[in-house]
Amino acid sequence: MFIDQARVFVKAGDGGDGVVRFRREKYIPAGGPAGGDGGKGGNIYFEVDEGLSTLMDFRYRRKFVAPSGQPGQSKKMAGKNGDDLVIKVPPGTIVKDDSTEQVLLDLTIPGSRVLILPGGRGGRGNTHFTTPTRQAPSFAERGEPGGELWLKLELKLLADVGLVGYPNAGKSTLLSVVSAAKPKVANYPFTTLQPNLGVVSLEPGHSFVIADIPGLIEGAHQGVGLGIEFLRHIERTRIILHLVDAAGVDGRDPVDDYHKINAELRLYSEELAKCPQIVVANKIDLPASEDNLERLKKAALEDNKEFYTISAATSQGSKELMIRVDQLVTELKQKDPVSEPVVELVLPKKEIAPVDEFKIIRDNEEYEVIGAGLERLLRRLDLNNPEAIGYLQNLFEKIGVYKELAELNVPEGATVRVGELEFEYME
Ligand SMILES: Nc1nc2c(ncn2[C@@H]2O[C@H](COP(=O)(O)OP(=O)(O)OP(=O)(O)O)[C@@H](O)[C@H]2O)c(=O)[nH]1
Ligand SMILES: [Mg+2]
């Protein structure tokens, strides 16, 4: 089955904790602090992989959690960083925030890799918390948790070439002959129920993508047959290959078929109708095609369209056709190139708020110190450790928390809160 939507959960790695360690050396009874920093958590990236054409894999794996950073070690050694996790998606994948539907990424360029969630930063080891009066801090900072998100992935097939035509025209047969794709082929209409993609590579490192979509019939724009909804899959293609059963196996007139399909394309979108189109007369291995080729060619040339004859079944003429398609795709790509691969941070990196920006608000008899940087620091410290509290007291002094409390005439004994921390105010 062709799946073009998936929901995935991603979580960046947590930062490793900083640790409390001391040097233990012979003849030095109490060495200095030596706790290393925690490693950074792994990042989550998306990477565009040309080899993929569906979001099928996400049916089997929906959770992507990057490894955490290791805790710091003794001798001031930092913990190992968590490995990055790279999620591979086919070209044309759109990544949305699942709850807000906001588009976060539009992944079109093969090979590009984009960071979606950075790993949490590692906590600092006790080495960082020495002061002139506290040479041996017994606390360290915890690692920062990695962010997490539910995402919705959507794939709009990105093909260079779209195959259109009546059912049984031989679209899937042609795709199977020129690419490694193995679409179902059968002599009844609407064999193809979902788009198939194939990569055509005439020479190494050079390829284009063909999309085979379900057949169209007269009235498709009104929902007859499978309707025209699949045309949206070829809206972004550069060329349309219009396959016509030149032998009229199903009893219709090929020239009539040709005009009817073009009418349906126009009814769907003028833009699509104007897209460069090559008219391909198929089934020329069948004698019944002979009488129709000249008429069909005339109709195509009158519309200023190129005309080719092939037999998809015997593959006669398909190589020549692909060489021409390759030429055209290359030309059109040069005229309208997609931009160069980008590697960028798409989610705005959160500004890390400085600790010394805070304000104090009064809440009845209590006071609250509010400041994102300060609160963030507090979350990462062990508030049961008296030394960590001592460290904070120094910090409050330094950044002016006490001074401002005094200026507000906070009464002796009033409760002051900072994040999780609560203390009694004393002058
Ligand atoms: N003789 C002959 N038969 C062909 C040729 N190409 C395709 N066929 C046959 O035509 C029938 C339909 O071929 P498909 O490739 O399934 O046609 P399709 O356009 O994909 O049809 P839908 O998926 O139903 O829209 C099959 O029985 C094929 O074997 C050809 O060049 N010559
Ligand atoms: Mg088919």
Description:
The chain is α/β, with parallel strands linked by helices. The protein folds into three domains: 1-156, Spo0b-associated Gtp-binding Protein, Chain: A (Distorted Sandwich); 161-335, Rossmann fold; 359-424, GMP Synthetase, Chain A, domain 3 (2-Layer Sandwich), CATH 3.30.300.350. Helix content is 21%, strand content 23%. It is built from eight helices and 18 strands. It has helices at 171-178, 254-268, 270-274, 290-302, 318-335, 372-379, 386-399, 401-407, and strands spanning 5-11, 44-48, 63-65, 85-89, 93-97, 103-107, 113-117, 148-155, 161-165, 196-203, 206-212, 239-245, 277-282, 306-309, 359-363, 366-370, 415-418, 421-424. Strands 10-11-9-12-13-14 form a six-stranded mixed beta sheet, sandwiched between helices. A hairpin with a 2-residue loop joins strand 17 and strand 18. The radius of gyration is 33 Å and the shape is elongated. The protein starts with a strand and ends with a strand. Residues 339-348 have low confidence and may be disordered. It binds guanosine-5'-triphosphate and magnesium ion.
Please give a quick description of this structure:
Helix content is 21%, strand content 23%. The chain is an alpha/beta fold.
Biggest sheet strand line-up: 10-11-9-12-13-14
Structural class: alpha/beta
Q: Could you describe the largest sheet, including whether it forms a barrel?
A: 6 strands, mixed
How many distinct domains?
3
User: Which fold name corresponds to the CATH topology of the largest domain?
Assistant: Rossmann fold
